[in-house]
Amino acid sequence: MDYYQIEKQDGFFRIGSPEGVFSYLIVGSERAALIDTGYGLGDLKAAVDSLTALPLIIINTHGHCDHVGGNARFDVPCYIHPEDMELARRHTAPELRRENALRLSQSRNYETGELFNALPEDFDTDAYCALGAGKLKSAREGMRFDLGGAELELVETPGHTAGGLSILWREKKLLFVGDAANFFVWLFARESTGKQSYLNMLDKIDALPVDTYIGGHNPRPMTHEDLALFRRAALEADYKRGEPFRPFMDQDRHPRICPLAGFGPEDMFLPGYAAVVIAEDFYKETVR
Questions:
Q1: CATH superfamily of the 5-283 domain
Q2: Can you give the residue ranges of every domain in the chain?
Q3: How many other C-beta atoms are found inside a 10 Å radius of the C-beta of residue 20?
Q4: Which tens digits make up the pLDDT trace of 244-273?
Q5: Which tens digit of pLDDT belongs to each residue from 199-230?
Q6: How distant, in Å, are the alpha carbons of 117, 130, 165, 208, 268 from that of 176?
Q7: How far is CA 23 from CA 58, 59, 167, 254, in A?
């Protein structure tokens, strides 16, 4: 359980891990909801059990391995958009899990450049690779989950993936967005939906009754001002002038980093930075 760092926020818990992924636990009076499960490398269930004994549901913001990897550590429903269900199965298959474990054993701190091992001390590679995707259950926009004193509502947020879901907590004016919107958003994968879809999504969440946007990787909450930066980055993106980027997936898409004018790849953690990571076909897509 020490593998995970638990921080109490305003009405919820943020559960962080060395590989730089956050899960969020909201505890009502009758049941609890866990938003995303990270890579699932450590004993995430023990961390959650230390915070609540109430019945639990899991909501996955999308199907990537660093958001659904811990689903199978829980014997509970894992709600995910149907467009990302097969993606979640692919990203929790044994081969990809094994590749992730090897890669994460040689992780890099992007602020310092230092290498470190992100795996727990007692990590069992074979057991991890056999976990699977968990009890996936289809979820769509408008679904509500009453936890008792806290009601969560699902909002479809395509762009990063076709089946992106964000979780709206109206009472707190919070939107948990996963990777749908952030200062370094990946929009190059085969499951990404392209420029106009992403811009439409940003407009959609900007119009919601929300003050704060909570992301899956960035510890700092985001605001409407941040959304404006993300929109500018997408509008100004020029693949031909972008910097080559080598991700751990879909390398054959030859993605490039396109930051706002005046910023380079080394400026990622400076105030005002925003970038989209795109493939050449970013501009050609069907609007969702």
A1: Ribonuclease Z/Hydroxyacylglutathione hydrolase-like (3.60.15.10)
A2: 5-283
A3: 18
A4: 999 999 999 999 999 999 998 789 989 999
A5: 999 999 999 999 999 999 999 999 999 999 99
A6: 28, 29, 9, 12, 22
A7: 10, 10, 13, 30
